[in-house]
Amino acid sequence: MSGLLSSVATPEEKRVAFRKGLASGVIQQLPGAFSPLVAKSVERAGFEGVYISGAVISADLGLPDIGLTTLSEVTERGRQIARATELPALIDADTGFGEPMSAARTVSFLEDAGLAGLHLEDQVNPKRCGHLDGKAVVPTDVMVQRIRAAVDARRDNNFVICARTDARGVESLGAAIQRAKAYRDAGADLIFTEALADESEFAAFRAAVDVPLLANMTEFGKSKLIPAKRLQDIGFNAVIYPVTTLRLAMFAAEQGLVEIRESGTQEALLDQMQHRSELYERLNYQRYNDFDQSLFNFQLEAGA
User: Fold this and answer.
1) pLDDT tens for residues 182-214?
2) Which domain holds residue 287?
3) Higher pLDDT residue, 296 or 205?
4) What's the predicted TM-score (pTM) here?
5) Which member of 131, 164, 168, 184 is catalytic?
6) Among residues 92, 111, 122, 166, which one is catalytic?
7) More confident position, 179 or 5
8) 161 φ, ψ (degrees, to nearest 5)
9) What is the CATH classification number for the domain harbouring 241?
10) What is the pLDDT of residue 292?
């Protein structure tokens, strides 16, 4: 039964693995997963971790990324994804769903849900997508309070508290660097450098801040897409691809729906689909069947 209904690795073991990965000198690539099944595919592809994007959770619920999702919705999606994979999962916790005490409560919820870490951002609540204009950030001391509350609330010291700063797009690169230093001093284990423009800005951030750094390589945003190897050479410790799998899936689904509507059949789409046998293999159907058979292999004696 091990590894069927949940991962073999415990949440504590995944957190240790995430910590080791961040300190390894090898950049940790974390593609976004919008479902447990996608998380299984991320693991199968050989990545180091899974990322759970708040923007993707919002989009999957048919909502814009403007702080409408709740702590319970995010926690449950995170729980479902984390238990489905052996990889550590980092989750987007927006601004902590309220004041510093709410950020503390968020940590306890997500720690209990089996996540390896979360990130909190310094935007004003309600927030918006980090690659849109018109953002606003809270004063540095307010974000420091969020981080300190989060750090104080965790029970497993290996649970990673990541601080995201959106100050590059609101104030300046220099202001973002100064905020990152303050967030590090407040106890953040990892700094998420949102919406940097190009390699020179990533390099400047790395040179100025002595703490593990996370890059966001989202499509169609303000950051130039930089290969993972180049980010590793610059000195970044982790990189996320938050919306990539959702965009790939939605493009394919919408193209397929057009084909079915126009032709009346999916015949032309078959070679673009995951085969039933491949899906069953991802889901370990045979192991479930073997387990089921092992439970029901007895016979009742006559008259029993």
Assistant:
1) 999 999 999 999 999 999 999 999 999 999 999
2) 251-295
3) 205
4) 0.93
5) 164
6) 92
7) 179
8) -100, 110
9) 3.20.20.60
10) 67
Our answer to whether residue 92 is catalytic in this structure is yes
Instruction: Report the residue count for the chain.
Output: 304
Angstrom distance (rounded) from CA 274 to CA 219: 24
Are 17 and 126 found together in one domain? yes
214 plus 123 within the same structural domain? yes
Q: Respond yes or no: is residue 198 known to be catalytic.
A: no
55 and 30 part of one domain = yes
Q: Are residues 111 and 234 in the same domain?
A: yes
- Residue 122 is among the residues annotated as catalytic for this protein: no
On whether both 138 and 184 belong to a single domain, the answer is yes
Amino acid 134: pLDDT: 60
The total of structural domains in the chain comes to 2
Q: Examine the residue annotation and report whether 121 is marked as an active-site residue of this protein.
A: yes
Is 65 one of the catalytic residues?
yes
Upper half-sphere CA count for residue 158 (Cβ side, 13 Å): 19
Tracing tokens 């987007």 back to the chain, one arrives at 92
Same domain, 200 and 277: no
Q: Do 266 and 123 lie in a common domain?
A: no
Contacts of residue 95, defined as CB under 8 A and 6 or more positions apart, other chains included, come to: 67, 103, 120, 121, 122, 123, 124, 125, 127, 146
Same domain assignment for residues 136 and 273: no
